[in-house]
Amino acid sequence: MIYVDEAAGRFHLQGKGYSYCLQVDEEGRLLNLHFGARIPDGSLRRLVDDYRDGASFDPKVSRLPLELPSPGAGFMGEGALQVENTNGDNILRLRYEGYTLLDGKPALEGLPASYVESADEAQTLVITLKDELLPLRAELSYTVFRDHDVLARSLRLVNGGTEPVTLTKMQSASVPLYGEDFDYLHLKGGWARERRPLRAPLAGAAVRIESRRGASGHEENPFLALMEKSATERQGRVWGETLVYSGSFMAEAVPDNFGNTRLSIGLNPGVCRWRLNGGEAFQTPEALLAFSSEGLNGLSQAFHGLIRTRVCRGYWRDRERPVLINNWEATYFNFNEEKLVAIAEKARDIGVELFVLDDGWFGKRDSDNCSLGDWVADRRKLPGGIKGVSDKIHALGLRFGLWFEPEMVPPDSDLYRAHPDWCLHAKDRPRTEARQQLILDLSRQEVQDYIIAAVSAILGNEGVDYVKWDMNRNMTEPFSAALPPERQMETQHRYMLGLYRVLETLTAAFPQVLFESCSGGGGRFDCGMLYYMPQTWTSDDTDANERLYIQYGTSVVYPPAAMGAHVSAVPNHQTGRVSSFKMRGDVALAGNFGFELDLTALSPQDLAEAAEQVRTIKSLRGTLQKGTFTRLESPFAGNYAAWQFVSPDGDELLFCGYQRLVEPNPTTHRIRLCGLDAEAIYRLDDGTAYTGGELMEIGLSMPIAKEDFSSCVLRFRRERAPRA
Ligand code: DGJ
To answer: How many structural domains is the chain composed of?
Structure first.
């Protein structure tokens, strides 16, 4: 609910569990009075007065909790909106002009964003500020969802004059939080070790989390949280932000010297400037903000709910995702049709539903050094082309999926030979290669159209039900032959807008194709990609032990239904580690389950176990995909990891516990469950019954491990009547 008190210039955005309160002051400045736990409407007068007095060396404006600060005219901190005016200065003095309040949520032009399906699901408030001197307007947009404890924010800048203005920093959200004694938490990583949660005290220093790579990246995720010192997974105040965007971003937590900390997120100003001509508008990506007074799990659950149902879209959003087999780790580039069909036959036998043909099916691609862009089947490997193999897979009763890496062009490709200027590059400079490839310049419409046509030709004619959309390097020389010098710093963002146009077109044209996003594993795991593709390949690291860390960290923001997770061979190809088939399956179960190994090479025993895993997944999919996920024990804390799923109706509970190493003379290790019905009975298939209270307060004892890397998955059904 959004309350507006026009006379007092006050806006109270009240979610299920949060309040976000804005006030126009006597000079027309927009102040943020509170973002935190929900408060009753009308509780703000004291807060307004709070900022009125107090002597300071600096001008008064420097101590105000401005909602959209700009430097140059008294505000001494980090501006959320920064410009270069035609006269060379950077001054903005933004003053309140008006507001509109509407039911529902308008789409953001050209950008992915959270959405609603009916107008009664949300209210959107747009507050307009205007510079006192220049005809520049800032439209701040806020959406409060009825069913989700997340606030969606974005900023639109409109140049109503005739002179251009250059936008040098335009954060999607920037919130001055009261308090400075916070820890911050971010998701740090690298290829094959994505999204490890790191927590540290802010200790008065400004913190910046960013990517400049033209992708959200493996190294940092577009996410930053502030936590009260005492906050844990299960209790305490936590604020978090993420961005519905897949390119370079910057998130900051900046303490001022008046006891506030500004939390913000948006495009990365280090690699993005935008020239806004008179009459033009610029729309920032959308930021999602959440507050939880129930610790980090509460924050994650708020994000999970919104992302799963109101960021992810389309035919597959709510449908059970198929159990898949991917041939990458089974064959790499070395396959032919016969081999693929042999794997698919075994897959059919154990109940797999989708066969995915990975890299190496096109051009003359026997290694990763050529042919991207030449999307024509290699007849040496596939004599009947893609249609030939997809027909055979379909005849087995499986769906057929295909890998693409459409944004790339290696110098050794017909596409590059025909269009050497279609890649990102800087005039007269060497073109830096990575994985022996360059990046197509998706800021250019003819390049976007080429990709749309090439991919459509295959999706439309060759019997493809699933696409793995990969992207295996980040930007260097991120400039365009098609843009004038003063717009070169727009290339990265224009690339993303181009990519989104391609994805919008393809997903609209092929609504029933299931798209999975990938970027060398999880190098572009963000809400921008999830808007077009409801699942992402979480990491190229398929080692079960490593996946505990990666999936645990990923779940801080993203729901399990968004994570691809596969059982692969041992010794594991990334780590050389050997873990049991059961452990590998029990870890992969907490995502979109699949296999990534040569099923024709499995022992009968492992094959039987694989078939059992598929049966289990199929019977649990509803809860795994749509249930409430809670982290119970962190693998970063010790030898164990655990999480739970509870079905939407609360009647099914799934506990997943993992132990890395065997312990000598082991002590009891209990794990307390969370959020259950304390009075109800939760019964295992073997009849053993516990009350919810027992499970939450006493906990479950992990079985004594007999080998390294062991796991335990327990399914309980809730019975409503208490035990006699
Ligand atoms: C990187 C992906 O993450 C892998 O799964 C695989 O598809 C390779 N690319 C293929 O080149």
So the answer is: 3
